[in-house]
Design a protein that fits this description.
This protein is an alpha+beta fold. The protein contains five helices and ten strands; from the N terminus they run αααααββββββββββ. Strands 1-2-3-10-5-8 form a six-stranded antiparallel β-sheet, with no helix packed on it. Helix 1 crosses helix 3. It is elongated. The relative contact order is 0.12.
Length: 205
């Protein structure tokens, strides 16, 4: 049976209010994840700081154009900004045989891509295996990117802009990867490490 008149209007208003509340939470969460202040997001999106503040506090219903501008500034789709929270548990398994693998130019370093494909534009996760003498040379990533290398076995040497640092098993090295960088296994045994690349980290000065 359909709903008409005042009852229908109440349902529509309640739905709009719920969507607006979810939008405000999502905008605030993404803004903070990118370490953006209200002023910075305002500058990047062209949306007034006061409007963004009202959206985050669920005090206004923004236009589609405003939502689009915020989505562009936060580098996400409108669908993600408007997406409602999921109550269902999320479980997604990838088989070992389906894991993408990259090899270094010398064939001695192996990168298994274990990160989620949906986050690849801002977060990348790898398992690195480097045989003795292996060299993994990478070009500069976008400005502000940071890489975290956690060695599980063996010893690796990282070189960034001419500066070298040795990382042993049980140690983690974080470094700017927005410039050419090299990972080497100068030891006599294979090295294994977990590597996380954050492509939208805060710019480090």
């Amino acid at each position: 049976m359909g709903v008409e008149g005042r009852d229908k209007q109440k349902i529509l208003e309640a739905g709009a209010l719920a969507l607006s509340g979810q939008l405000g939470q999502t905008v605030q969460r993404l803004r903070k994840a990118y370490n953006l202040s209200l002023s910075e997001l305002s500058q990047q999106s062209g949306v007034a700081k006061s409007i963004i503040s009202q959206i985050e506090r669920n005090e206004t219903n923004p236009t589609l154009a405003t939502i689009w501008r915020l989505a562009q500034a936060l580098d996400v789709s409108i669908e993600r900004v408007l997406q409602t929270a999921e109550d269902e548990p999320f479980l997604e398994k990838t088989l070992r045989t389906d894991t993408p693998i990259l090899l270094s130019d010398d064939g001695k370093c192996r990168l298994e891509i274990i990160g989620w494909i949906k986050t690849v534009e801002w977060l990348q996760c790898y398992e690195l295996t480097a045989n003795p003498g292996g060299v993994l040379a990478s070009e500069a990533h976008q400005r502000g990117s940071v890489e975290c290398l956690s060695v599980r076995a063996g010893v690796l040497e990282v070189e960034v802009a001419g500066v070298k640092e040795t990382v042993k098993a049980g140690e983690t090295l974080r470094y700017r990867c927005d410039r050419p960088h090299i990972i080497r296994n100068a030891g006599d045994a294979p090295a294994h490490a977990n590597m996380v690349c954050i492509l939208k980290a805060a710019v480090m000065e």
